[in-house]
């Protein structure tokens, strides 16, 4: 009985030392984790600001002239442009009819949404249905990302001896598209954007923060 009583302080002391050791490493870890979370939040907010404030380059109201309009692809629905993609195409049509450019490059391969034709083919069909001569539309039916869209479009431009392009997309996507255009060597960098009245912008802007981050990391290795 006396031996048990004498052992209790030893056990209590061991538990106290163990708690002290945990406290020594837990507090710095909590501090580092908090700083990391704040840094991540600051990064996301700064990118979100860049994404949402982009209005095009050059700024709206500045005249744009180009040989070709590069329309960045998006999902098809039942082999036809989705409502969001139609917004991009209609914006490009407005520029075309205003004389900003005389030819289209439509971009995008076969997506994963069950389409039986490529995004580029669906975009071409839509433009032809709006009165654009098929001869004025060149397709890139292989690309699967914005980077590939612009790399392949640039090669098409070389083949046709076109030197100036304007990239057409949505405003939430415009800043990244402009940065990619600069990286691949399009000069001057011209990106014309349209707002969306059909897309869930909270979703697409949030998703764009992740896509932009991925692009900035990828760019380091190109």
UniProtKB/TrEMBL annotation:
Gene3D superfamilies, sorted: HUPs (3.40.50.620)
Chain segments annotated as transmembrane: 29-51
Segment forming the signal sequence: none
Domain annotation DUF218: ranges: 67-202
Alphabetically ordered keywords of this record: Membrane, Transmembrane, Transmembrane helix
Gene Ontology terms: cellular component: plasma membrane
Entry-linked Pfam families: DUF218 (PF02698)
PANTHER family: DUF218 DOMAIN-CONTAINING PROTEIN, INNER MEMBRANE PROTEIN, PROBABLE PERMEASE
The protein's name in its UniProt record: YdcF family protein
Organism: Cohnella herbarum
């Amino acid at each position: 009985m006396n031996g048990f009583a004498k052992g209790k302080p030893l056990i209590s002391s061991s538990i106290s030392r163990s708690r002290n050791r945990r406290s020594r490493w837990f507090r710095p870890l909590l501090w580092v984790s908090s700083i990391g979370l704040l840094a991540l939040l600051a990064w996301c907010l700064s990118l979100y600001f860049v994404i949402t404030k982009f209005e095009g380059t050059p700024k709206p109201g500045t005249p744009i002239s180009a040989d070709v309009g590069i329309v960045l692809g998006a999902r098809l629905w039942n082999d036809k442009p989705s409502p969001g993609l139609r917004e991009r195409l209609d914006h490009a049509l407005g520029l075309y009819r205003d004389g900003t450019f005389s030819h289209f490059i439509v971009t995008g391969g076969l997506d994963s949404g069950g389409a039986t034709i490529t995004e580029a083919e669906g975009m071409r069909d839509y433009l032809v249905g709006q009165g654009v001569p098929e001869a004025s539309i060149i397709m890139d039916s292989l690309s699967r990302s914005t980077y590939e869209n612009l790399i392949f479009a640039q090669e098409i431009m070389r083949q046709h001896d076109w030197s100036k392009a304007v990239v057409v997309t949505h405003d939430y996507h415009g800043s990244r598209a402009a940065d990619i255009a600069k990286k691949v060597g399009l000069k001057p960098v011209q990106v014309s954007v349209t707002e969306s009245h059909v897309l869930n912008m909270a979703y697409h802007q949030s998703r764009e923060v992740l896509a932009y981050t991925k692009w900035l990391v990828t760019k380091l290795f190109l």
